[in-house]
Amino acid sequence: MRPGVPVAVVFAAVALVGCGPRPPVGVPVAEYVADPAATTGSAAAPSSDRAGTATPGRSPSGPPGRSPGGSPFRATVEQADGMLVAAGSLPGVFQLDPLVDQSTPTDLPPGCPALDRFELALGQAQVRAARGFLGGPLGPFLAERVAVLPATAADEMDALARASVRCRTFTARDADGGSVRFGVTRLPDPELGDQSLALALTGKAGDTGLLRHDLTVLRRGDTLVVFVFSGHGLLDPLVLPAGSAAVLAAIEAF
Length: 254
Fold this sequence. Notes:
254 residues, 8 strands
């Protein structure tokens, strides 16, 4: 959690200026509420298939998600660094946040099993690179992470896609003991890479107004690029598409 920002203030799946160290947003979950009728539903299928048909963002040099040698794409540290967006690639004014690195947890609120699983998977993954931006003293915050999950990246994407079914609503508590009720909405998929998905988490806590987390995740082979865009009120809808396009261009250059 960031100073002055309740539990919630989506480029896992990118945030400075005159602020001290910020503790992570994640706090012990006091309550989880899921729609009972939704827990038996099936997950929406990712818009990009995993079998090999041509979809936007796939490399023309070989099968989807595979390096020229035939192995699943697993970004090296050097490649991951090249996949981090630059402030100039984003609309608006953003500054680098030196407090965001490979060990920094996401700003996603806890309480939804599908999101908690994804957060755990990222924590255990090989996070090759990370970068954060801040749009002002109180946000919005943008964080990007490039992680390699050998042999499990596609499974984690499928599990994450169930978040809008398993957690149409959930409740988390902030460090001050206040509760925040979030709704999870599946957004139109970016249709980039081998798989991609986008989620919006919207909540309201006390007098702080609308809290919003937008999560966008792109998969190429065994590599995930995770963007989390968080802030108060409405977020600029052009930021995540701009970041995703920049990352895709970098991947295609490898």
